Structure formats: structure tokens, C-alpha cells
Predict the structure.
Amino acid sequence: MAFIDYYKVLGVDKKATVKDIKAAYRKLARKYHPDLNPNDAEAKRKFQEINEAHEVLSDPAKRKKYDQYGEDWKHSDQFESARQSQRQSSQNRRQTTGSGWADYGGSTGGEGFSDFFESFFGAGASGGKSRQMKFRGEDYNAELKLELEDIIRSHKQTLTVNGKKIRITIPASIENGQTIKIAGHGGEGINGGPNGDLYITFSIANHPRFKRLKNDLYLTVEIGLYTALLGGEITVETLDGKVKLNVKPETQNGSKIKLKGKGLPVYKSEGQSGDLYITFSVKLPSNLTEEEKALFTQLSKL
Amino acid sequence: MKPKRNLISIDDFCSSCNVETSFINTLNQTGLIEITSVEENLYINIDHMPQLEKIVRLHYELDINLEGIETIIHLLHRINGLQDEITQLRNRLELYE
């Protein structure tokens, strides 16, 4: 765990006044506040850093301890206890008023603070703010990776989010990048406020064979030269099984056919489906025998 | 009083969040939030709470005035719209990759 230079984080001098610190914090908070930077993990991390620096430097007692030990913070507890026992013996059991660091009983429990902070000031050292506002808990964001096959039909899936198991329904045809809200499954409310929400963003992996555009699927199927020229029957594997297809004679390379209703189900619309578009890619024969070459030559002269 | 379904009393919200009722009224007048009146009591729909809490944070934590909040909310809507558009375009682009 590394030492964090809170002055550097806020961009202020070690001699900065409380007013300077507040001004620096406000300026940076306006830049990195999560409300102003939706879905930006880097801004959120930066905001937590700024918040933590402000928590320490705006509190005279915390700032004093931080300034006193600086990079020797790892030994702060030893120094503190050594000094305390020395003081106690010299003062011969004189009653102390008890202003140890454990007295910083914060209401927010120090969530979102670094290990360095927790270690230096103790867990639960954050807070101490005068405003005891009830707030919704933090909204959680999670990403769920799915394969195209997973979204052919709606299904239930159990997820573990922050150690808690929740069972959700994944609707068929959910879009890549789409986010759904699971109300009340975010962080716990602060000071009795309601729980936050859980936002799940779906990431649908690219399929090696099928391309998707909304509810329609696109597939390229290779056919041989003779099938393309003379027509024939081929078997195509769609997402929900094999389908027999008649290829018309003289099918051109790159031509498309549509299989109605063989795409993905329409999102949240029972019984409706998109289409499957098949593009034929004609594969020319290679390694021709002398006889084949002769016959193609003969054909070319017709 | 019997709690209204999906509605949160403005008085309750203001007292628990240390927010002045006049501030909420101003937000209502500017159209930033929508207040519902039931039997002479004012409520906000629970679905609009995240927006209200966001505005409260911007005002009280970041000292942003009402004009600034209006601008921010407008720009955030635009950002969200653009992000959705980017996602759709990315999905479309995969067709040609």
C-alpha cells in the first residue's frame, strides 16, 4: 500500500489554508463528480481520490496527524502508543480527555476510501459532516457478457453482485451495450435512505458466423460453382436448428435471400421475430484436372 | 397520513435531506422536476428521485446555481443520447467488420 500525497491530489501547497483547500476541492469535484461524468470509471476513481484528500486536509485533526507522520505513516500507531504510554507515566494517571483517532465515528463507514486511508485513520474514520442527509445508496454498475445463443429466448440467470445473489430475467434480443436497471439492488442507503439501483450493461460477444443488426441476422454461406450454376439443395445451420434451402440455378456470387422469421425475437414482443439474411458466396473450384481445364476451355468458346 | 403509491412526500424529502422546500418549488417552476399535488400535499414520483437527488448534490455539494444545473442536465441528456447513438452505430459497424 503506497503513501498518498493528498496535497498533490488537490494540487495545493502544504501551507494551504482551509479556504484554499475547499476551493481546490470544489474545482476538482466539479470536474470529476460522478453526476457530471456518467459511466466514467476513471472520473469516479479520481473523484474518490479527491474526496479522500479533502476528508483529510479539511479536518484539522486528521491533517495534523497526516502532516506529522507523512511518509512514515506506517509507524504512526507505534509512535502514538509509545508517546501515549510515556505521557501517561509522566503525568501519573492524570485523566486524559481522549481525542484518539478512534473517536472519528463517521456515519458513512468510510466506503470508497483507499487502503492507505483506512490504515492510517482506521476504518470508519470518514464522515463527521454536519449534514445528516438521507441518501439513496450508491448505484452499482455491472457488465454481463453473453453469447448470441444466450439471447435467442428470454431466460433467468443468477448473478452474484457484491457477494449477494440475485436472479434476473434476461430478455431475448437484448442489445449489445444495452443497460437495464434492477431497482433496489445497489448499495445500501445512507442514514436510512433507500437502496441504490443495480445497472447491468450487456455485452454480446461477436458471433463467428452470424452478424446481427437489431432483430435481423446476417449469414454468409459458401456454395460450390456447380450448385450456383445449376441450382441444388443445401443445408444451413441457423441459430435454432438446421434448415434446408433450395438454391436457384444461376445464383450470382453475393446474392441475398431472406428467411422470414428466422432472425432474433423482437425485444419484448412475444411471437414476433426478425429475419435471417443469407448471402451466397460462390467458391470457385481449384486444383483443376486437365480434363476439367479442357472442359472449361470448351465452355468458354461456346 | 397513508403513503401514496410510488410517491414521496416533498415535506419528508426536505426534512430528511435538509433541503429547503422553496428550492424544490423553484425546481418545479423551472421544469427540472415534476411535482404532483394530491389532497393539498406535494409529492414527487419515485422514478424522478434520482434526478432530484442529483440536482441536490450538484447544488449543495458543488455549489452550482440553478442556471448551471439547467445547463448540466441539458448537456447530460445530450451525452446520454450520444452514448446510445454510439452504441447503436458500433453494433451496426460490426456488420461490416
The first strand of chain A starts at residue 140 and ends at 146.
